[in-house]
Amino acid sequence: MKEIIGVIGAGTMGAGIAQVAAQSGHRVVLSDTNPEQLLRAEQQIKKSIEKLVEKGKFSADSGQEILENLQFSTQLSDHSQASLVIEAIVENLAIKHQVFTQLEQVVNPSCVLASNTSSLSIASIGACLQDASRFMGIHFFNPATIMPLVEVIPGVATSLSYTQHIEQLITSWSKTVVVCKDTPGFIVNRVARPFYGEALRIYEEGLADFATIDWAMTEMGGFKMGPFTLMDYIGNDINYTVTETVFAAFYYDPRFKPSFTQKRHMEAGFLGRKTNRGFYDYKEGSTPPSPTKDPVLGKQIFERILVLLINEAVDAVFMQVASPNAVDLAMTKGVNYPKGLLAWADELGAEWVLDKLESLFSEYGEDRYRPNPLLRRKVREQSKFIL
Ligand code: NAI
After folding, report:
1. What is the structure's pLDDT at 387?
2. Could you tell me if 130 and 197 lie in one domain?
3. Which of 139, 239, 259, 311 is catalytic?
């Protein structure tokens, strides 16, 4: 008998996570306090399963079975039989505490409890539980049915045996699991910050416009989307908030300083695709701006952003947030980077990366360009990040 999985919150993430678990053969209870949201989630999952059947991903019978294994409920008590419950409700600590305090009264003592939080610490959410040893972060990416990466985050109180069990379980759902420390932004939302921040900084210095920076990163760097196209896709409100949250959580480390340009776009309601206007204009009939295809400038932009990304990946390893392999997997599977940043550093040579960072640091004298000590060590030892 497969485990029974509970998911709380039937919004963007919860509906996707419930579908992933059901497709892996589990009985799933998806709960939400809002019955209309539950209905929407049910319709969305049904449509998605029908599409997958049409595409031949599984048979009509299997599709039917998956749908029959899903139960939709407004009652938290319906999670009483679950062996794992993943919470994906609004990002608010007080409300999450309310839900987990009630949930702990309902589930059996060995049931693993988890949060899909992006920005709250696992320690702070788990603090409301009588037994936090069975509590951890299980962070899916949007859309959960498509994105392969899942970050598993044990808190200070979490037992290793529960973490190992969840690592195995989520891997069996055909996901790539990386385990990381309970630090702000976990892996992806921390390491990816310079992709946005340095692109904005380059624009603010007047070195290039949005289209040229996007061109440099896609054409020269091989990234699927340029930073400004991606920020418009994510939404400037969401992306700015993640940056601001990470900045504050790192005690205002200047490496993560948010940008006025993005803030002003957000304040003006230029949120991106969802408002038809962000860094670019998406209204019908509008002409996209042309980049300045100057290879010297393009290389300069790409290399500057890349070395800052590498420095951040190195820092995550240096501070023991995750292993080098986990950091590379996270960036390739969580945000589709064309290569793992540490493998990229190995390919270019740690010395080359260090040189670039040192020349930026000497030009600007700002902490954001400070090379990581582990990068210096790799140069000294002439060793690689990925063994
Ligand atoms: P959402 O706003 O789409 O859905 C939240 C759902 O929770 C709503 O359906 C709401 O009715 C329900 N809810 C609110 N309070 C509740 C309660 N007390 N009991 C039961 N249900 C309740 O939110 P979204 O975007 O799905 O985010 C959920 C969580 O996942 C947040 O912690 C967020 O930080 C995290 N996350 C979001 C990602 C994204 O791209 N949207 C990516 C990864 C994590």
Report:
1. 87
2. no
3. 139
Find the 90 Cα to ligand 1 centroid distance in Å: 4
Catalytic status, residue 276? no
| pLDDT score at 1 | 66
11 shares its domain with 109? yes
Distance CA 305, CA 353 (A): 11
Ligand 1 atom nearest residue 14's Cα: 26
The answer to whether the pTM exceeds 0.90 is: yes
| 26 is annotated as an active-site residue | no
Last residue of a domain, one of 182, 202, 222: 182
Residues 129 and 175 in one domain: yes
334 contacts 187 by C-beta, under 8 angstroms: yes
What is the reported pLDDT for 351? 98
* 191 close to 341: Cβ distance less than 8 angstroms: yes
Question: Is 151 an active-site residue?
Answer: yes
**Over the stretch 238-280, which tens digit does the pLDDT of each residue have?**
999 999 999 999 999 999 999 999 999 999 999 999 999 999 9
Q: Domain range holding 121?
A: 4-182
Tokens of 357: 């960072």
Q: What is the mean pLDDT of residues 151-166?
A: 98
Question: Which residue, 182, 199, 221, sits at the end of a domain?
Answer: 182
**Cis peptide bond upstream of 143, omega within 30:** yes
Q: Does one domain contain both 286 and 162?
A: no
Mutate to test the pocket of ligand 1, among 13, 34, 36, 116 (most ligand atoms within 8 A of CB): 13
Does the CA dihedral 256-370-330-158 come out positive or negative? Answer: negative
Contact 152, 146 (CB under 8 A): no
- Are both 326 and 229 inside the same structural domain? yes
Question: pLDDT for 179-233, tens place per residue?
Answer: 999 999 999 999 999 999 999 999 999 999 999 999 999 999 999 999 999 999 9
